[in-house]
Amino acid sequence: MATSFKDLRKFMDASGLSYTADDETGVIGVGFQSDPGETTYRDLEGDPCVQLFVQIHENGEFLSVFAPLAWNLADCVNVPAVCEALARIQSQMKLIRFDLGDDDMLRPNIEIPLEKAPLCVEQLQRGLAGVLLAIRRFDPVIRHAMETGEVDLDLARDDERTAEDAQPGVPPAPDMGRILDLANEAGGLDALDKLLGGDGGPPVEA
Questions:
Q1: What is the mean pLDDT of residues 50-69?
Q2: Rounded (5°) CA angle 12-177-124
Q3: What is the pTM of this model?
């Protein structure tokens, strides 16, 4: 039984997230806020906010989660270094891929082949969390490559969320923190990788 757009909306409701839905295109949009001190990422307006789209394809047999406006490479003179950085990042996060559109926007995404199996809410939550984690953790690496032409994965941010991360008097970011916590409770990205046929371990070198 394929997943319908109605099913997808129910899962978004179950996750407690605010979203917009376009029934004609089968796309759901959701914005995730973050505390400025928790991430180096900034959107095109300079805010620490990530916009994600969730889309059903192939009559409900394929799901994609992507950030349509993550990084703009239109004026970047160090695209080869960025591409090298992305290849190295993908070796560390097996579910993540990056697309470079004709508009020069770099889009991190996760694609989940459902075939005839119905989507479950944990898959959706982990897919959202995977793209958020990639942006949150590797934005310093990507921006450094864009600006300097150098690839330095040591700049990657620690993606572990702990109670010590909280700042006194500062409430947790409402959406980004919630979806990351939900995904961790559901088993994290390794669980999704295993569900999709991977072993959750490091890639095998030839």
A1: 87
A2: 30
A3: 0.77
